[in-house]
Amino acid sequence: MLLLQALPAIGNGEVIRYVMPWVPSLGVNVSFVIDGLGLTFGLLITGIGTLVMLYSAKYLAGHPQQARFSLFLTSFMLAMLGLVLADNLLALFVFWELTTITSYLLIGFNHDSAKSRRSALQALLVTGAGALALLAGIILIGTVAGTFELSEIRAMPGVLTESALYLPILILVLLGAFTKSAQFPFHFWLPNAMAAPTPVSAYLHSATMVKAGIYLLARTHPSLAGTDVWLWTLTIAGAVTMVFASVMALRQTDLKQALAYTTLMALGALTLLLANSSGYAITAAVVFLVMHSFYKAALFLVVGILDHQTGTRETTKLFGLGRAMPITAFAAALAGLSMAGLPPFLGFMAKELSYAGGVEAVSSPWLVAVAFLIANALMFAIAAIVGYRPFFSKAGKPMKGISEAKWPMLAGPLVLALLGAFFGIFPMWLQGSLIHPTVDSILGSTADAKTLQLWAGFNLPLVLSLATFALGFVIYLFTAPLRATLVSLIDRSPNFDRGWDKFLAGVLASAKWQTRVIQTGQLRFYIMVTFITALAAMAVTMVVKQALVLPIIWTPVTLTDLLVFGLVIVGTGLAILTQSRITAIAGLGVVGIGIAMIFILYSAPDVAITQLLVETLIVVLFAAAALRLPALGAEPLRGRWLDAAVAVAMGATVTLILLMATTGPIDRSLSDFFEAASYPEAFGQNIVNVILVDFRALDTFGEIAVVLVAAIGIFALLRSKPGKDEA
Amino acid sequence: MEPLLSILIGVLVAASVYLMLARNLMRFLFGLILLSNAANLAIFVSGRMTAGAPPLVPDGLDEPVGVVANALPQALVLTAIVIGFGLFAFALILAVRAYRSLGTLNTDEMRVAEPKEQG
């Protein structure tokens, strides 16, 4: 209701803005702006939301989870309001995702039905994927424009359209908008989403949420439109969706499904209109948007009433209800007339303006006008099927014992239908307060906004309108044979819904395949991958940094050196080749002692002592453990050539690195410091010891901790009994 | 001696990689020991080799006389040896424990955490 107070101000062309910093370092603000576009959407959301709330209180009366339903619906309303009022693109994205999530919860409200769950998931995945694209697009916009504030971006004309990143931005934003607003080829989720309770369908999937994509297109129109890519993408996607959806709508016998497809048609029409930048097209889009919300929500609610009172939504069964349900029939008739585009309803004006906009379309007036003609004629027929046939047609057996619905359920459709008629007769009220300010937000001025009028003179749009009525009437008369033809045609054409299932199955299969390839469950495989990665990292670095240019200096080698070298090689060979545990352990001991001798020869007595001690311990431990372990046995040589190759490559790389490292200059400043400071500062003559217990005492402390932890772990492992903790 | 030692370290690394890629967990442990030795030697060599001059300060002086061996790598290697030993001892007991539970040392057959394809 607060929004209503804003009406006069916005009508005078003002813009209300409210900013609160959220993540200032990233330029994310919770900023809200109320301009014509936001206000129009905001009023639709709150207005229809109130009526739908009232309606669903009765529709779901006695449902065990009614409270939950109201919670979801209210959260959705909040999210949607945030979406249309947000001025910061990132805040807009957050609200965008919130509507996706609440929509998921609402479609899946009947969660014990597998169909509901599938539809909810499908809607979530399709719109969620689109939203990810949108997020990427938003970030690109942010980098190009340097701000996420929509109002600031709008103030810089051409900043996006002339940028090198324009095409990626456009594609990503359009992906988001098209998935949300169910444009072909992402349309398939919307009819499925009708698994939701009828109030949800009326609210989310016709009046508000699916229009978020349209809203985004309108919002970004000033910054992104005007190029050929924009024009043609939107024209083609819109026209295809529009015609395809209206044909599909005729095929349905379930009234709700039929309405679902007409909603698709309306979204297509809006996209098509937004492709252009002319005054007629944009005015038409805005009027169409408003009037569609009125009549479509009304009709959905009417279908809900029919379903609630009679228990069926099949057009082949519903007849002669006009007498039993006079008020419902009245509302349905009004809404139907508006949908059919007959004067003096708002729908008539929207249609006239669409034709006018189509005729002067830059892309191809012929294509646009014909698409509108086909779609509008079919719409006329559907309007008659939904709004007239169940109540007044004498084509079938009238239903008996049906009573009128209670007033909270009637209020919604009645008010909405009456609004459509009211504004049709008094268009200037709507025009001044909402339509023109909205056109202003999209085009930047009201100069091009067209006046809403019922009688615009005898011109081309009027001729087209008359043709529409004639064609629509013919289609209505021949509905049954046409539908039969369509059913056989459509069933033979590719089905997007089934394609979706195949796609999902494909994703799952590829995930399984990845797991099988990457997670073999074999330790050897993991080790191999680790080594090869390390090898590649070292080799690539050496090549890239061109480290292999230094000549190798062969320093003199003594006989003792050679003997020790031979000793270690022999020990290593023993460890690799033998099949006896004792020999292998002995070989390892030889290697260890050889290395200790190297330490002795080259002035590291402390290291040598430690090495000897540890080597002895290892041999003892190994020998003790070997008593509990089986004999080594021969390692099968099959497939080991690869292991050998990796091993040799690894060894060669390490050797090369060391050769390069020892040939280059060395920085001894740390060692010099230790040599100079060891005695004066720490009073120790053995520099190595001083480093360990004084200068790097904390490291040594850590080292002791490691050994202690290992000892505790070993103790625990030996104590635990097998069989307890196995899977 | 540095180039010779570099080659020796390469041989040790190659041997240890080859052993660690074996199916038998015991051979993996042999590889672990060799790798630890190779790494220690590599640190030692990078600090350059000086024969017959341990890093000691003579009695009555504040600093060592002349050129002595690089003390820093020695200290690092000392720490590394001990930690390597801790790692090895823990891995060894893990292997013993695994054998007690699973009855095999063949890593290809140890599939408790990641069982073979079950569809």
> How much of the sequence of chain A is in beta strands?
under 5%
Q: Assign the structural class of chain B, choosing from mainly alpha, mainly beta, alpha/beta, alpha+beta, or little secondary structure.
A: mainly alpha
Major β-sheet annotation of chain B: none
* Helical content band of chain B: 55-70%
- Please estimate the helix content of chain A: over 70%
What oligomeric assembly is this protein in?
heterodimer
Largest sheet of chain A: 2 strands, antiparallel
Instruction: Please state the structural category of chain A.
Output: mainly alpha
* Global Rg of chain B: 20 Å
Top CATH class of chain B: Mainly Alpha
Would you mind describing this structure in some detail?
The complex is a heterodimer of chains A (727) and B (119). Chain A has 727 residues and is mainly alpha-helical. Chain A is 73% helix and 2% strand. In chain A, strands 1-2 form a two-stranded antiparallel ribbon. In chain A, helix 13 packs antiparallel against helix 17 (365-387) and helix 14 (279-310) packs antiparallel against helix 15 (326-340). The two termini of chain A are 61 Å apart. Chain B has helices at residues 2-20, 25-46, 71-102. By secondary structure, chain B is mostly helical. The model of chain B has no long low-confidence stretch (mean pLDDT 85). Classes of the chains: A mainly alpha (727), B mainly alpha (119). At the A-B interface, helix 24, helix 25, helix 26, helix 27 and helix 28 of A face helix 1, helix 2 and helix 3 of B.
Fold blueprint:
The complex is a heterodimer of chains A (727) and B (119).
Chain A: H1 2-5, H2 7-11, E1 16-23, E2 28-34, H3 36-59, H4 66-85, H5 89-107, H6 114-145, H7 150-154, H8 166-180, H9 189-192, H10 198-207, H11 211-224, H12 228-251, H13 255-274, H14 279-310, H15 326-340, H16 346-359, H17 365-387, H18 389-392, H19 407-425, H20 427-443, H21 460-477, H22 479-492, H23 496-518, H24 523-544, H25 559-577, H26 581-601, H27 605-626, H28 640-663, H29 669-682, H30 687-695, H31 697-719
Antiparallel strand pairs in A: 1-2
Helix pairs in contact in A: 3-4, 3-10, 3-14, 3-19, 3-20, 4-5, 5-6, 6-8, 8-11, 10-13, 10-14, 11-13, 12-13, 12-17, 12-22, 13-14, 13-17, 14-15, 14-16, 14-19, 14-20, 15-17, 15-19, 16-17, 16-19, 16-21, 17-21, 19-20, 24-28, 25-26, 26-27, 29-30, 30-31
Chain B: H1 2-20, H2 25-46, H3 71-102
